Amino acid sequence: GTSASSTNHTKYKEIISTLPRIEGRWQQSQQLHEYQGFWFGQNILEGIMSAQEHLKAQPTDIFICSHPKSGTTWLKALSFAILTRKRFSYSSTNPLLSELPHDVMPFIDISAFTDITSRDPELPLLSTHMPYTSLPKSIVEGKCKIIYICRDPKDLFISLWHFTSKLRGTSAETFPLEEACQKFCEGLHNYGPYWDHVLGYWKASLQFPERMLFIKYEDLQNDTFSYVKRMAEFMGCPFSMEEERQGLVQKVVDLCSFEILSNLEVNKSKKHSSAARQYLKIEKRAFFRKGKVGDWENYLTAEMAATIDQITEQKFCGSGLSF
Ligand code: A3P
């Protein structure tokens, strides 16, 4: 009820006020709070605490997990298109043609959405940007399947910098790239440090390979077709020979391509994504920028690139992971 949730609200606020805090510069006057080894803005952190306390994941649930700007929108579209291929054809009835991919499944990091009772009962998909170690118990203990996507830290940083520039709005002063790079390297952004986020899921994927599918954005770009088949197998709905013969795998690839999705009216819209509701006013079109690998080369100085690469090497050393 309302009073219980406002009590929780106060409770989370009180806990948050005791946490280490720093001025984030990505959005105007946004403070970041350190919780379980990562940094979060107040609204998101309240949502995460609420999800940790209340979320009851079903063992059949499949979670789309990522750090923001890793390719979440794409992965959501692909997983949705794969799972609903019998319900929706690839004609005009497909929800992906009229809704932002973020809006076709719940996003559990926002407290309003931890009440997932209103979700589509036929769709087992849920999403989160939470670090692995902060996932609600019911996800880990329920052995839910997880698909995680990550990306070259340099491209992720450039994508994040553009995205947050849009959130700041045109009236705000710009956040100089060099300063942003420094903050990124220190992990001072929502859900940062990025490297620790990736490592948490990477280690879990080595430990529990049957319930985790770990995907790199670059690999997905390189061979989307194979990954669509692999995702379908992983989610327990492999493409049949007949479906393959009908070209359904390629249809999923095409429908979810950057070219198709980014040119849909809905995804060019300045309307706000409903998945994030009132907390994060994000225009739908902000989720589509270039969709390319290696765009960092157009922005980063050699020095900035080297700094990021050095951290990547250090952090991933001995993990078997590289970019
Ligand atoms: P760029 O800013 O490098 O273009 P997220 O979805 O996690 O917010 O990540 C956004 C990034 O994914 C953006 O990267 C965006 O352009 C890219 N993207 C969005 N939809 C995509 C798609 N269908 N295929 C490939 N990349 C996509």
Walkthrough of the structure:
With 323 residues, this protein is an alpha/beta fold. The chain has one domain: Rossmann fold (3-Layer(aba) Sandwich). It has helices at 2-17, 42-54, 72-83, 137-141, 153-168, 177-185, 194-207, 217-222, 224-234, 241-245, 248-255, 258-262, 302-316; strands spanning 21-24, 30-35, 38-41, 62-66, 125-128, 145-150, 212-216. The strands form 2 sheets. A 4-stranded parallel sheet has the order 5-4-6-7, sandwiched between helices. A 3-stranded antiparallel sheet has the order 1-2-3. A hairpin with a 2-residue loop joins strand 2 (30-35) and strand 3. The protein is globular, with a radius of gyration of 19 Å. 40% of the residues are buried. The model has no long low-confidence stretch (mean pLDDT 92).
What topology emerges from the helices and strands here?
Blueprint: H1 2-17, E1 21-24, E2 30-35, E3 38-41, H2 42-54, E4 62-66, H3 72-83, E5 125-128, H4 137-141, E6 145-150, H5 153-168, H6 177-185, H7 194-207, E7 212-216, H8 217-222, H9 224-234, H10 241-245, H11 248-255, H12 258-262, H13 302-316
Parallel strand pairs: 4-5, 4-6, 6-7
Antiparallel strand pairs: 1-2, 2-3
Helix pairs in contact: 1-2, 9-11
Residues 66, 68-74, 155, 159, 162, 256-258, 261, 287-291, 295 line the site of adenosine-3'-5'-diphosphate.
